[in-house]
Amino acid sequence: MMLLETRALTANYGQFRALFGVDITVAAGECVAIIGANGAGKSTLMRSITGVIRNEAAMVLHRGEPIGALSSAEIMKRGIAMVPEGRRLFASLSVEENLLIGGQARKAPGPWSLEAVYDLFPILRERRKNPGTALSGGQQQMVAIGRALMSNPDLLLCDEISLGLAPVVIRDIYAALPKVREGGAAIVLVEQDIGKALAVADRVYCMMEGRVTLVAKAAEVTREEIHSAYFGVA
Ligand code: ATP
User: What family does the database annotate (predicted)?
Assistant: First the structure.
């Protein structure tokens, strides 16, 4: 049984249809990358999985159970955690308080605790009393990832975690992902940087105009296949 599955998933913004029957699967412990140009529907897919957009129940399955109609809070309680685009830390709270909020959202046994997050990102231990706003963009991203991990999810969804960050910081953040998988979580990564996505993922889905145009093993996919799936040209 798949950890996560979408079946003929559609999503609309009012009259505008953004997803036209998207089928993806994520196995337990797997890392799946979702790539595609601006407007392809990647964020809408994330919002559908996390309950920000409510769908028909059977369009999203978690461990075989329909979750497409559940609220974000209910989905988070099931063990699906999101690192949102733009990080969205609580600015008036410290690093540690931000992390603890993640643990309160879902109390579940697992490898992640304050100490484990500080071991993953040691700079956060040094900054633990600082307000979220006093951090660099990369450090804020680390807090956002740590906050999601504190709920001990079985699936971590990451939306554009490298956006706007310096290469050295991106490297540190990507270096943490294998450790997240060692902790038992599967990862879905929405990523503009195709090289980064392929380096870390087992499989890659490419989306265009609300549809999946390619699914492939990251180690086997060719530049030509990605190019045509991305831009819709042969
Ligand atoms: P990006 O990389 O720019 O975030 P994306 O692949 O994540 O792109 P989505 O943000 O999912 O794409 O957008 C898919 C389509 O839905 C686009 O045509 C977009 O204009 C539209 N869209 C996204 N959010 C909304 C919204 N809140 N209201 C109306 N239309 C929206």
Answer: Belongs to the ABC transporter superfamily.
ipTM: 0.95
Question: Is any ligand 1 atom within 6 A of the Cβ of residue 15?
Answer: no
Q: What is the pLDDT of residues 51-104, one digit of tens each?
A: 999 999 999 999 999 999 999 999 999 999 999 776 677 778 999 999 998 888
Evaluate whether 49 touches 6 at the Cβ level (below 8 Å).
yes
| CA–CA gap between residue 122 and residue 130 (Å, rounded) | 14
Ligand 1 site, residue 44, Cβ cutoff 6 A: yes
CA of 41 to the centre of ligand 1 (A): 6
3-state secondary structure of 234: coil
Beta strand ranges found along the chain (DSSP E): 4-13, 16-26, 31-35, 60-62, 65-66, 80-83, 155-159, 186-190, 203-208, 211-217
Is the pTM higher than 0.90? yes
Q: What is the DSSP string of 28-41?
A: TT-EEEEE--TTSS
Which residue is associated with the tokens 């964020």? 43
Place 132 in a pLDDT band, splitting at 50, 70 and 90: confident
Query: Residue 216 forms beta bridges with which residues?
Result: 204
Separation of alpha carbons 51 and 59, rounded Å? 12
Q: What's the rounded Cα separation, in Å, for the pair 107 and 47?
A: 23
Q: What is the number of the ligand 1 atom nearest to the C-alpha of 14?
A: 29
Task: Give the list of residues 6+ apart from residue 143 with CB closer than 8 angstroms, or none.
Answer: 87, 89, 95, 98, 99, 124, 132, 135
Q: Going by CA atoms, what residue is nearest to atom 10 of ligand 1?
A: 43
